[in-house]
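Model it.
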Amino acid sequence: MATGLLLFVCLLSIEHASLTRAANITVECPSSTFACKTTDDCVDLSERCDGFRSHCPDGSDEECTTPDCVSPDVFSCDIDDRCFSLSRVCNGVENCPDGSDEVDCMLKECPLPGYFKCVGSATCFPPVWQCDGWDDCEDGSDEKDCTSKECYNAYDLKCESSGVCFSPLKQCDGFDDCADGSDEENCTSIECPSPEDFKCESSGICVPPWKQCNGLDNCIDGSDEKNCTSKECPSPGYFKCESSGICVAPHWQCDGVADCLDGSDEENCTSIECPSPEYFKCESSGICFPPWKQCNGLDNCIDGSDEKNCTSKECPSPGYFNCESSEWQCDGFDYCSDGSDEENCPSTSKECPSPGYFKCESSGICVAPHWQCDGVADCLDGSDEENCTSIECPSPEYFKCESSGICFPPWKQCNGLDNCIDGSDEKNCTSKECPSPGYFNCESSGICVAPHWQCDGEDDCSDGSDEANCTSKECWNPYHLKCKSSGVCFTPWGQCDGDYDCEDGSDEENCTSKEC
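Modeled.
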């Protein structure tokens, strides 16, 4: 459960979001796509809330509301009241604790029309994942015969040699999305997708308006950063730095961080309105902070005014208790130093709200079935980790430690770490298949290493077998490059970057003839 880490992670993510300066950008995405909140990316609607992976860099495509469980478009788990979109059924990931969403998939049609079923397995993927350049099927069947297939989205373009489909927004954007580079050819003669876009002078690459005059050379020749002091900022409400003319987003003005080199975005703050009435304005400096930074135990204002009078204030977000989320009340962890979040808790005689949950003996706190006998005491009295030898693991693929009965998922077997105290999860590894497809079985120890650890230049197997015969192996990632003599795989951005990733230096050869 590791609930104690949740507050730490949440606070870190908030701090990270403010440090990475992610602006709320409005992108004109096609109607069949979802516009990511803080980046200029468009994601197909079939990939939104698919529960499999985040397609937006900021993860906004997976910020989803809980569906109505009576809707015909959702799947309900067998043993509890959890439900989710049909797009998460037979997708190779167990979303239900009992795995009922992945049962009998070989016999079923894909749950949604247009979905693609892998030839060698029962896994279903959204149609937009076909011919996208990535092997989502273990057998690669979703990437076969792409040159003869139409793209799922009619507005998408195709790479010349491979037939891989890509968004027109990725044409002439300065990045080789096609392995043959055909998406970046003849850019000077191509119209930009929007009239507000800026066309780089030398390359013809198209730069969206919010990337002009932002202090970064998005054009190799720097033409997007010329004459900024005489230009209006491309979006209303943006602030223009006094000396450079660089434009910064309105919520970066008076936020306590100097985004302008001359600091002009942090001047005269006492006379400026905060971007939202929920924001807090520091008494002495006038700097604005979002509501979740008030009464959080940290002095965000230099004068500490954001932490004053907290006992008399309502918490800034509904459902919070003494500025801790209500889900952390009565969970067995003392978040408030005075223990008030664990007072007046429901009687231990009550049943847990969901079947299969375990009730802690002393506190009556309920923990999820997959947290019982997982090697971590979620009950303060440790009762969720007792009598494990008589308990069934949550899935037949799980491994049960011989002496303790603790259950571990398959990827923790034969990984070189003693997850079981008795080391039974690391026994007989040489005779076992690796639990996850694509993993490599070390020759002498039988330890399983991830596909991206093979031929990466690091000896992850103590015998070096994961680094043997690399010249004859394909790189795990089709976009990676190989060192000439060793066959070690490295990322494209490691080529001609001034650092020797290959022992023979082949990653830094012929750099004068290559464009960055």
